[in-house]
Design brief:
Blueprint (H helix, E strand, L loop, with lengths): L12 E7 L3 H8 L4 E9 L15 E8 L6 H10 L13 E5 L2 H18 L6 E4 L4 E2 L7 H4 L2 H6 L5 H6 L1 H9 L6 H11 L3 H14 L7
Parallel strand pairs: 4-5
Antiparallel strand pairs: 1-3, 1-4, 2-3, 2-6
Helix pairs in contact: 1-7, 2-3, 8-9
């Protein structure tokens, strides 16, 4: 029997974005081919140990571990731009940010920013900043949409906040149950993810129910 695919031990790079909230980005990025793990949290500010109720000057963000041989940073940026409004002025908690992890990411982000600004024809509020300390959000925020299905979480052995942050399977399921990805894509990876048929059928019903719905945070 195939083991549940929680751990993927391959070299990864990191990308960090803030795009108005973090529940929806966690779903969107989690089902992208080449994304290994995701976690949501707070970044970009100076306050020490921020919390959701005491955020200080931090912004809701998502930290992505990705396989650069399967998905390029440019592709992640494309997903970033397409899934929020970078022209909308929001309070600091929900603003648009790109946190670069190295000089190459900085240059790619700056080029992408100029292209997007030319495309929309108006100034973007997005800031491009060096990645700083990323503070994990509280456990109930991690894979929030997946956690709304406790039977499913138990069935695949997800119990603690650490489980939801480290698990590749959690990242995939969190997107699928909220209508990201599609039924064809899910069916193609059921065996690789190690899911039995009762779990797979449960996820399929959610994909069919939620596919194409608008994302809300």
């Amino acid at each position: 029997m195939t083991s549940l695919l929680h751990d993927v031990d391959i070299p990864t790079k990191q990308a960090t974005f803030a795009m108005a909230c973090f529940w929806s980005p966690d779903c969107i990025f989690g089902v992208q081919n080449g994304v290994i793990r995701t976690r949501v949290g707070y970044s970009g500010g100076t306050a020490q140990n921020p919390t959701y109720r005491k955020l200080g000057d931090h912004t809701e963000s998502i930290l992505i571990d990705y396989n650069p041989n399967a998905i390029q940073y440019e592709e992640l940026l494309d997903i970033f731009w397409k899934n929020h409004d970078p022209t909308s002025k929001m309070k600091r908690q929900y603003t648009s940010l790109i946190f670069y992890h190295d000089e190459e990411q900085k240059q790619i982000a700056e080029k992408s920013f100029k292209e997007k600004e030319n495309e929309v024809g108006q100034p973007l509020v997005t800031e491009i900043l060096p990645a700083s300390t990323f503070y994990d959000a509280e456990d109930y925020h991690q894979k929030y949409r997946l956690q709304q299905h406790p039977w499913l979480c138990k069935a695949v052995g997800l119990q603690s906040g650490t489980d939801f942050k480290r698990s590749h399977l959690a990242a995939r399921l969190n997107g699928y149950v909220y209508g990201q990805g599609n039924l064809k894509g899910f069916n193609e990876e059921v065996e690789n993810l190690g899911l039995n048929e009762s779990v797979a059928d449960f996820v399929r019903t959610l994909i069919i129910k939620n596919e194409g719905q608008g994302l809300t945070c």
